[in-house]
Structure formats: C-alpha cells, structure tokens
C-alpha cells in the first residue's frame, strides 16, 4: 500500500469520489515533500507571501487571526486529512496563521504541484473543491455558534462536529475521540473565557452528556447532546454525492 493510499486525505476524498489508480498516483506525488513541525511554532504566518499549502498527515493544527491588542480568535482546527493554506496558494498572502497544537507531520504542496494535479485529474480537483467547501461551511457554522447559540449549545455543537470530522478519517465515533485541545483553545474558538469553558464542560458532564478529560472526549448520551446543540451534520456532507 502506498503512502497516498494510507493517507487520511485519501480516506476523506474517497467519501466523495471513487478514486482511480491515476488519481491515487497523483495524490502520491502530492505527498512526496514530507515535513515535520514542532508544536507551538507557526508553520504559516498571517501576512506570509509564500505560496505553499500542506496536507496534514498526523497531528492537530489551529488556524487563527491575531487582533491589534494581541488577542487571538481561533478560526478552526485542522485534523489529519485536511489541507492547510489552500486559499493562500491562490491569494497573494495568507490571511491567518497556522500553529501546530502537537508535533505534526504534513506534506508540502507547491502551487505548481496543485495546478498540475488539477490539470491531470479534473475529478480529483472537484473532490478537493468539495473538501474546501466543507471547510467554508464549518466556518459559517462557527459564526452562527458564536453569534446565536448559548454557551452549552455552542460547546456541544463544536464537540459533535469534531466527532463527525474525525469519524470520516477513522479517528472518532459516537463513543468519543482523542482530543489534544486545552480549555484555552476552546475559549479562543468559542468566544468564551477559560473559566466559562470549565464551567460549561462541568455542566455537560453533570448532565450525563459528555466528559472531556485527559485529552479524550467521551460521549455518554450522544443523542441528548445532539438535541441540546440542534446539531444537523448535513452541512458536513459526509456521505457524498459519490462521483463515479
């Protein structure tokens, strides 16, 4: 089995398109430039002009924007199988930063690599566009969450979304998943203070819905959490349409 066939990205794209041998070969080439990055050190800076993207193979990354006063808003988290900086390949500069939460492994993808892959395999280009569209849909949901959901529903929705995303690459289920995020990550994502995050997680645990402890999320009442969050995973488009 090739590295591309083992790649979480391949597993993710296979939910959308039945990948051919030629398309797997192109994905193999996109995985050739393998790099490792250390936790806590930005791999892409806001305003950086280097036109390169990455395919995350292992580990977790957060994408964030810094405000003039030094505060941080985390826009999203990237998990194995996700592209990082795909938009900055087409734009002149990156409009946000990427910071590994743990030590990670990623494949570096140059603009020329991506354009060549799109030219050779239009279906693969469509599948990557699907993945990028999912990312945009998640950002919209996060905006709705911060603006309109109360703290409990906001947290529940976020934890459920992560479960769905991780399930697509074989790393999560309705029972739970490993999660390296701290309460400070959650605070910067959900627009809450770390103290409020702690309070909300305790409330969800005491209600018998979910426990987040020792870097692991455990669902005790998945359906109850879905009801609390009003979680409808349709925006994630996890099951297709599968292109033949």
TrEMBL record:
InterPro entries named in the record: cNMP-bd_dom, cNMP-bd_dom_sf, HTH_CRP, RmlC-like_jellyroll, WH-like_DNA-bd_sf, WH_DNA-bd_sf
Residue ranges of domain HTH crp-type in the record: 149-223
PROSITE patterns: CNMP_BINDING_3 (PS50042), HTH_CRP_2 (PS51063)
Keyword Transcription regulation in annotation: yes
Lineage top rank: taxon: Bacteria
Record bears the keyword Protein biosynthesis: no
Gene3D superfamilies: Jelly Rolls, Winged helix-like DNA-binding domain superfamily/Winged helix DNA-binding domain
SMART domains: cNMP
Domain Cyclic nucleotide-binding: 15-90
A GO term, aspect molecular function: DNA binding
Any matching Pfam family: HTH_Crp_2
Keywords, ordered alphabetically: DNA-binding, Kinase, Transcription, Transcription regulation, Transferase
GO biological process: regulation of DNA-templated transcription
Protein name: cAMP-binding domain of CRP or a regulatory subunit of cAMP-dependent protein kinases
Taxonomic lineage from the root: Bacteria, Pseudomonadati, Pseudomonadota, Alphaproteobacteria, Rhodobacterales
């Amino acid at each position: 089995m090739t590295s591309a066939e083992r790649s979480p990205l391949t597993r993710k794209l296979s939910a959308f398109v039945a990948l051919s041998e030629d398309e797997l070969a192109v994905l193999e080439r996109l995985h050739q430039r393998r790099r490792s990055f250390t936790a806590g050190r930005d791999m892409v800076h806001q305003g950086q002009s280097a036109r390169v993207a990455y395919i995350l193979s292992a580990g977790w990354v957060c994408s964030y924007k810094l405000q003039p006063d030094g505060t941080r808003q985390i826009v999203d988290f990237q998990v194995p199988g996700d592209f990082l900086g795909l938009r900055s390949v087409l734009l002149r500069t990156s409009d946000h930063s990427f910071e590994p939460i743990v030590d990670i492994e990623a494949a570096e993808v140059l603009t020329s690599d991506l354009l060549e892959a799109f030219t050779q395999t239009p279906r693969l280009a469509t599948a990557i566009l699907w993945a990028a569209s999912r990312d945009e849909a998640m950002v919209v949901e996060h905006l709705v969450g911060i603006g309109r959901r109360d703290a409990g529903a906001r947290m529940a929705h976020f934890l459920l979304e992560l479960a769905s995303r991780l399930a697509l690459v074989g790393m999560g289920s309705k029972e739970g998943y490993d999660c390296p995020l701290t309460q400070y990550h959650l605070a910067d994502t959900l627009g809450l203070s770390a103290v409020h995050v702690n309070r909300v997680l305790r409330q969800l645990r005491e209600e018998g819905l979910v426990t987040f402890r020792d870097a692991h999320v455990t669902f005790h009442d998945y359906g109850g959490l879905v009801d609390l969050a009003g979680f409808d995973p349709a925006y994630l488009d996890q099951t297709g349409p599968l292109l033949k």
